[in-house]
Write a structure and sequence with these properties.
Blueprint lengths: L8 E4 L5 H8 L4 E5 L2 H13 L6 E5 L5 H11 L5 E5 L10 E3 L6 E5 H4 L7
């Protein structure tokens, strides 16, 4: 999902941070949002241990407030950003790529796909 990509990456429901850390190892500036504060702490520790703490950031965020997060990301992310959502898709966004199945489903959203288009019904 990251091949031939540039720009920042946001992982919604980042869990143990593996996607954010992998992206940071590839040179991306990456941010993970996770509800569980223990997983956020563990992700920060893993990023430090892997030496990517300057490129990987993690924040506690309630995934059930996805509508507010959708709006926030639309307003704040640069046009070349890619949003990766694991297990929970965004309710009003159309993914550019989907991989996996069941609880391992991952949705990728390119912000450039939304620029200049109406995003909400």
């Amino acid at each position: 999902m990251l091949r031939s990509r540039r720009g920042p990456l946001v992982d919604i429901g980042s869990g143990d941070g593996r996607i954010v850390i992998a992206a940071a190892k590839e040179g991306f500036t990456a941010v993970g949002y996770e509800l569980n504060p223990w997983l956020v702490w563990f992700s920060r520790y893993r990023a430090w241990r892997e030496g990517v703490q300057d490129l990987a950031r993690f924040y506690v965020s309630d995934l059930w407030k996805m509508l507010q997060l959708e709006k926030k990301l639309e307003l704040e992310l640069e046009g070349d950003a890619r949003v990766i959502a694991c297990r929970f898709p965004f309710p009003h966004w159309t993914p550019d790529q989907v991989t996996g199945e069941g609880i391992d489903t991952v949705w990728a959203y390119d912000m450039s796909s939304f620029r200049g288009k109406e995003k909400r019904p």
